[in-house]
Write a structure and sequence with these properties.
- With 365 residues, the protein is an alpha+beta fold.
- The chain is built from 9 helices and 12 strands.
- It has a domain of 221 residues.
- The strands form 4 sheets. Strands 2-1-3-7 form a 4-stranded antiparallel β-sheet, with no helix packed on it.
- Strand 1 and strand 2 form a beta hairpin.
- Helix 5 crosses helix 7.
- The longest helix has 30 residues.
- The N terminus and C terminus are likely disordered.
Length: 365
Amino acid sequence: MNKQILIGIMGGVILGLQGCGGASSSSSIGGSGTQTPTNPATTVQLSGAVVDWYITNALVFADLNKNSIHDAGEPSVRSDANGFFDLSQADITATDYDLVAKGGIDKATGNYYAATLLAERHYKNITPLTTLDTLLIRNHGYSSADADLIVQKLVGMEDKEDVVSLDANPATNKYLLSGARMLAMYNNVLTEVMSQVVQSSDTAVYSQDDIKVKISRDAWDQMAAQVDDEYREELKKEDGDKNKVEPEIKDKSLQFMVKLLLEKYQQQYNLTGVDYQTLMPDALAKAIFDYVDTVTDDDFVLSGHAFGDDEDADDVYMTTVQTTQDDTVVKMVQQYSVTGTVPTVQIKGDDDEKEYGDDDDDHHG
């Protein structure tokens, strides 16, 4: 199932893409991007998969200016019915860009995938794991090795005998899948919480799902920022010995991620009169943490299901498991809903919404 990503430099030089690049920009995943360097043209051949579980019909593109918007001239493709993509484009002069996946249909649940995922250009697949890993490298200055170690420890897979590269296909490894689903559920929670106060400015043009794709991107950004902050604090306590630091997303971490998101929207959209503990009270944060911590072990690591042996059986298993997981965390947020009782802001969706939206537009409402 795994497909390799290869980048061939014109002139016959082929580079294996197993290594990871260093930090490239301090801009956020939804930031203004960086200038595109002028270098000899490159023929890019990219093959991989978009996987939370497999995401079909996602817009996958080479984000040359790192603004997470599919701009004119940026090569793109849709992921196929199994979540895989093949992207080949000549005359790319950028040597530093990201791969972005937006929207699509979750193969496990059948629902519109109202989220954004990210990977560095040399990663094999685009997943929640590669998203956080890439943001730690790009936004917070970590080396690829240090970012990998942080993410591996964060999702509890650094000491597993069968640990594989973070950019491998999570659908074929229960530890990777457990970690990917953990991060994805936390991102889903942050997106659902913030969508109570961040809404569409024109529902005829941008559905709330379109707005969630945008919120999801900001949520990944602030998740990385909070992970970075907590990691550096622990690193100080351990006198700089990174091997002793055990990063973890806890219930308090989720609350501070909401706080960071609120600060961003207060600055960007003048959202006022909302407190992060109102949106993410202690009881909700603890319930989310306890649930995610339990099901990522029970449904994947301890389940006994052999992922990667039978694709059809995997799909059947994930249809039940992921639907239950996603529905449960959304219902938890709804149980503590403050919709209608707190101020809101209305924003536009991304300019490329028509490209990453569902072909049938059935997610609009």
